[in-house]
Every structure is written in structure tokens, then in C-alpha cells.
Amino acid sequence: MTKKSLPYTHKNISRIAFVSGNTRTGKALTLKIIASLKDIEKGNVDFLMEQATGLTITKDIKKETAIYYLRRAFSILDYNLRIGREVNFRKGDFTSVHEYQKPKKYFDNLKFKEGDGVIRAIKKEKRIIPLLIHCGLITSNIFSAFHKFVIFEMIRNPVSVIFSWINKKYDNDFNDSYRVTTLTIKYKKNILPFYTFGWESKYLKLNKFERIIEMLYILEKQKEKVIKKLKKTELKKIFFIKLEDLHVKPDIVVSRIEKILGKKRTKFTKKVLLKEKLPRIIIKNDVIKKRDLMKKNISKTYYKKLVFLEKKYNAVK
């Protein structure tokens, strides 16, 4: 019997600096810092690429399909960046050319002639493209789809994440918004985030704190499962960054990023840090107060899960 053909495209030419992590963990901030380093492209995000991750979890697409989609989406992004096509020129957006250290570069790219010469230029320039992706480690898709990449996995104290999600209504109304970029699923008459796949009815019975704790718990367990199966060479591509460390001691974190990427900071890096008001003072009592508030409003089962999440966070050095 003839083997069925599979969708295929090449792996990445340009090197990728993925900035991954759960929602509200500081990915955009880290993306800006990476893009401020010498000889690195502007920050980028492709929300449709992220659908490949979610649709793999919900088993709506095969892994081979997800890998193809990720590769093809990145190759289009890589090519388009080099000729100034579909580049963000909207002022204020964190992926805008106006937020980049050398905006003129992307205006000049508009003059580059389209065709195979673009590919030759990309190969010659050996670029590093920073790319934000949500929950990149809950599948092994990135490792199967690409080579020449690193992943900066952003983490944040789960108590802070929970309250940030609540403020954004990620536990409820926002999932049915026309603006939502995360994969959503329909369960009966409810629109839910794909994180709830397989336990939708349970989700609907929980209060706002318990819902988010359960989602973060499931994401953490899934990430653990994926990481345990990675090869040693693959594990060396992952670098964890605590948002709180970036807030309090940005110079140390930036130095670490410089070493990993082999690129030095620029004058623009300092401007980014100043604009983002780094370093910042963290009020530790704030987390304690929020944790105490949650403890009064969640079951013992969910408090144990919250403790588990905090232990996992604290274990990262």
C-alpha cells in the first residue's frame, strides 16, 4: 500500500528567539528587550501560528499538520519582514517598526526587489527574529518544526497571574470577544478557552479563582509532560525567566539574554528599560494579601493546587 503523502515545507532559515509563556507573564516586555539588542530584528507575533498549538491539544489537527503550518507561517513572516510586506507600522504597538531601534530599516526593506534574491539575502544576513508565542511548551511542536532557535519561557508568580487574568476577564466574558486571539471552543452554548478542553462542564461549575487555578494547573502539568520527553539537546534550548527578576534586576536578566543570543545591548536597550520603568519595586505584601483573599474563596483542593503552582515557580532559579 502506498504511503499517504504529507504536507511539507522547509525548516527556518533565520534563527528564532521565541518568547513563550502563559498569558500575562511579561512576554511583550521581554520581546522588546530582545529586539533592542544589536543586529536583531524587530519583535513579532503571529497569533494564527498559536492556533497550531491549541488545535493539537484539542486533537483537531494532526501533529504533522501543525508542524507544516508552523514552518510555513514562519517562512512567510521571515520573507515578508525582509521586503517590508505586512509589517506593523502602527505607532504604539509593541511589534511596530516605530518601537524598534532602527525604524528606517523596514522602510528601506520596501525597496528590496521581490524574488529569490530575498532568500539569498536572508541566508547571507543570518538574522535573529524575536517571536512571541503563548504556551509554546505545552506541545513539542516547536522542537519538531524548527531548528536554530531558543525559547525564553516567561514565568510569573501564579497569584499575580490569577489576578491579572481576572482583571482581563479571561475567566469569563473575554472568551466570546471578537478580539480574542487564543483558540476558543464551543461547549453547548458557552465559548471557552481551549485550556478547558475535556473538562468543560467542571469549568462552568467553578468560581472565578478556581477556574483560573485549574487552567494554570493543567497548563503546568502539560508543560511538565512535554519537557520530560525532550532530549538533552532540546532542553538546552529552553531558558526560564521570572518576570519578577526582570522587574527588580533587569541588568542581570539582560546580561543573561545577551550571553544566550551572543548579541550586545545598544543605546536603545537603555531607552526600553527607562520607558518600561525598570527596575521596579515589588511590594511583597501584595501577593500575600491576594493569596489570603483567594484562600477564603476556594476549596482546600484548589488551595493545594495553588501551593503546587507556587512551589513550581519558586523552584526555578
Describe the model.
The structure is a single chain. The strands form two sheets. A five-stranded parallel sheet has the order 2-3-1-4-7. A two-stranded antiparallel sheet has the order 5-6. The chain is α/β, with parallel strands linked by helices and 317 residues long. The protein starts with 14 loop residues before the first strand and ends with a helix. The chain has helices at 27-35, 47-57, 63-83, 104-109, 116-125, 141-145, 158-167, 200-205, 208-228, 232-235, 243-248, 250-261, 267-275, 284-295, 300-315, and strands at 15-21, 44-45, 128-132, 149-155, 184-187, 190-193, 238-242. 50% of the residues lie in helices and 11% in strands. β5 and β6 (190-193) form a beta hairpin.
Brief summary:
This protein has a single domain (15-315), classed as Rossmann fold, CATH 3.40.50. The chain is 50% helix and 11% strand. The protein has helices at 27-35, 47-57, 63-83, 104-109, 116-125, 141-145, 158-167, 200-205, 208-228, 232-235, 243-248, 250-261, 267-275, 284-295, 300-315; strands at 15-21, 44-45, 128-132, 149-155, 184-187, 190-193, 238-242.
Biggest sheet: strands, sense, closure?
5 strands, parallel
Q: Unreliable runs, pLDDT <50, ≥5 residues?
A: none
Judging by the overall fold, what is the CATH architecture? 3-Layer(aba) Sandwich
Please count the beta strands (DSSP E, at least 2 residues each). 7
CATH class: Alpha Beta
Calculate the terminal CA-CA distance, rounded to whole Å. Answer: 52 Å
Number of helical stretches of at least 4 residues: 15
Approximate helicity band: 40-55%
Q: What structural class should be given to the helix and strand makeup?
A: alpha/beta
Q: What gyration radius follows from the Cα positions, in whole Å?
A: 20 Å
Percent of sequence in beta strands: 5-15%
Average pLDDT score: 96
Order of helices and strands: EHEHHHHEHEHEEHHHEHHHHH
**Per the principal axes of the C-alpha atoms, what is the gross shape?**
globular
Give the tally of structural domains.
1
Q: Major sheet: order of its strands?
A: 2-3-1-4-7
Question: CATH topology, what is it called?
Answer: Rossmann fold
